[in-house]
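Hi all, posting the design record for the shared folder.

TITLE: backbone redesign
STEP: 1 of 1
STRUCTURE INPUT:
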């Protein structure tokens, strides 16, 4: 019975978080800071969810970090997303296979 109460509370909280802003804020948001803040919320949320996965996708967090650094540098040179993704995979693979030789 407790599980149904938990599910109901979760549903109510989710519903309120989506409905309250629509009912409380009727007009256009004029505050420049608040509009800028709301503009970047999806990007920050995505980054916060992806960053730990990048580091823990390999057996060594260093391999994930090196692949991330490669991706950031490649993105600054306006390389396409498929090429960056493939390059990051290659960098992580090479670093993962090279780690046992450096540890010995």
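Okay, here is what came back for every position:
SEQUENCE:
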């Amino acid at each position: 019975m407790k599980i149904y109460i938990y599910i109901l509370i979760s549903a109510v909280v989710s519903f309120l978080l989506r409905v309250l802003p629509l009912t409380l804020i009727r007009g256009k948001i004029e505050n420049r800071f608040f509009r800028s803040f709301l503009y970047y919320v999806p990007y920050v949320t995505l980054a916060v969810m992806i960053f730990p996965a990048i580091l823990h996708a390999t057996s060594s967090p260093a391999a994930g970090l090196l692949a991330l650094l490669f991706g950031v540098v490649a993105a600054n040179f306006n390389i396409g997303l498929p090429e960056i993704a493939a390059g990051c995979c290659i960098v992580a693979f090479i670093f993962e296979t090279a780690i046992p030789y450096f540890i010995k």
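COMMENT: The two ends are 56 Å apart (CA to CA).
Let me know if anyone wants the other runs.
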